[in-house]
Known about the structure:
7 helices, Rossmann fold, four-stranded mixed sheet
Amino acid sequence: MTKKLLLISNSTLHGSRYLEHCEDQIQKFLGNTIKTVLFIPYARPGGMSHDDYTTIAEEKFLQMGYQLKGIHSYKDPIWAIEHTDAIFTGGGNTFVLLNELYKNKLINPLQKAVNNGTPYIGTSAGSNIATPNIKTTNDMPILYPPSFDSLNLVAFNLNPHYIDTDPTSTHMGETREKRIKEFHNYNSTAVIGLREGAMLHINGDTITLLGSTGARLFLKDKDPVEYKAGSDLSFLL
């Protein structure tokens, strides 16, 4: 089966409503045959409840023509993964999200489902967990999951909400670029700095950069490379 993923940097773009900036891409990605979407709200942005988070996503997906239900409402979450048309994992804290996936023994069922063709959508933390590990997330490690290893659905890491270095900034902390270079001191995995408004569409053996803001590719011991929307990044697979 063809692996299909839509990995979005952020759920809300400045000046727009929830998922508004990527609504067209989501509808094109899911198409007309998808009816049910399983929502994974475990990342809990701002500590909101699973129910409150699911309500936000449910209303938006209903507007787009899809029935969405939170995985936490099922007695058997593995059954829910196996019997949905598509999966959407929302943003929030990546450490909290991954810890909950391990706690509920959902790593392998999610891997199996997506590798067998179930379409997967992620925003922010939900995109982070599609990669080999969560070592390039921006989030605070407020919980310690059993492992930093995640779903490994793609062969590269992400840094969602990537911010370019501002030479005029008075901020004295490390830039995103420096943090990614720190990662490459100990790891060789490629990292895509995915700006807000950007997303990756993976369809089998192809990766296309979508959105409006582009991305930067970081490879160990090499200078970053800029890519514009529409670029083919299939070589990363």
